[in-house]
Design a protein that fits this description.
With 311 residues, this protein is an alpha/beta fold. It is built from 11 helices and 12 strands. Helix content is 37%, strand content 19%. A 9-stranded mixed β-sheet has the order 5-12-11-10-9-8-1-6-7. Strands 3-2-4 form a 3-stranded mixed β-sheet, with no helix packed on it.
């Protein structure tokens, strides 16, 4: 896929109906020969819209107006490029817990959570948040996450988590303002509600930090999994992470995680983690497939804002 196609697809499938600013911006970049040439000189993994837009936001550049964005990015390209080369997208959207909780709550309790690609570990606390599925509310006392649900049997209670750990090539620390600033920069411009819940979730995590280890999802996963308490159900999970991983490495990971004790929850796009026949997606937007131990269960939106259970 060309750089222009990457940005055009992002505008049409990810940003449309979710972020008008990023839809306009990505569409404009897809036709901007100057920016396309600059991006094409980067490694393939560094050309993605979320990374470029997040870096410009972090540096204080404009992302609402495509013309202003072009002028700023071209004029400051050495600085923008330097940040792009040392950063990765680590969107740590705690709202994704809303689509994980129905699966986690149905497993044998208590559970030991191990997240691959954990970033700052915000998704390791599904038991500390509150979820609103239409008229049904689950949990109390924490940040509230709304999730539109179709065909879903809402869980009666939250999972009982007795151990939580994360693995990431570059773990972030919510007690460090610079790390929180990067997470904030990755939130799309209009999403003030996500910015508020980032701060609320970060406060939850900072009060009781998880075990976050710097490591590779294949080389270092077995040793970390072995630290889970033996009297709890181990659950290895990940959301919108595997697109960072080369295809052959993904295969190695899925083979490895299938051999571990406990269960495996994945929440990835079907292009990244293919399955057999799937129901038709509800519309042209980008959906993840929520799966348990390799069995697909539901379509989900990438920030946890919707779940459509397969009937």
């Amino acid at each position: 896929m060309t750089v222009a196609e990457i940005y055009a697809e992002f505008a049409a499938r990810e940003a449309r109906g979710v972020s008008p600013a990023y839809e306009r911006l990505a569409s404009a970049v897809s036709r901007d020969e100057v920016l396309l040439d600059l991006l094409a000189a980067l490694p393939v993994a560094k050309r993605q819209p979320n990374l470029l837009f997040g870096v410009v936001r972090l540096l204080g550049g404009p992302v609402e107006d495509p013309a202003a964005f072009h002028e700023y990015t071209v004029a400051n390209w050495p600085l923008v490029e330097a940040e792009i080369r040392v950063r990765v997208t680590q969107t740590n959207e705690a709202g994704r817990c809303a689509v994980l909780v129905p699966v986690l709550a149905a497993l044998p309790q208590p559970v030991a959570l191990l997240e691959v690609g954990a970033s700052a570990g915000l998704c390791l606390y599904p038991d500390r948040y509150v979820y609103r599925y239409g008229d049904h509310v689950v949990g109390s006392g924490g940040p509230i996450f709304d999730c539109a649900a179709v065909n879903l049997t809402v869980p009666a209670r939250l999972p009982h988590v007795v151990w939580r750990a994360g693995l990431d090539l570059n773990p972030l620390d919510v007690t460090h303002p610079a790390d929180v600033a990067w997470l904030d920069a990755l939130i799309w411009p209009e999403h003030t509600h996500r910015r508020s819940r980032l701060r609320a979730a970060a406060a939850v995590v900072a009060a009781d930090p998880p075990l976050l280890e710097r490591g590779d999802l294949v080389d270092d996963l077995p040793a970390l999994a072995a630290e889970a308490p033996p009297d709890a159900t181990l659950v290895v999970f990940h959301s919108s992470v595997l697109y960072h991983v080369p295809p052959r490495r993904r295969t190695t990971f899925t083979e490895l995680v299938g051999r571990l004790p406990g269960h495996w929850i994945s929440n990835e796009t079907p292009e990244v983690l293919p399955f057999g026949t799937l129901p038709t997606p509800p519309d042209e937007a980008l959906y993840n497939v929520l799966a348990l131990d390799g069995k697909p269960l539901a379509w989900t939106r990438s920030h946890g804002q919707a779940i459509i259970w397969f009937s």
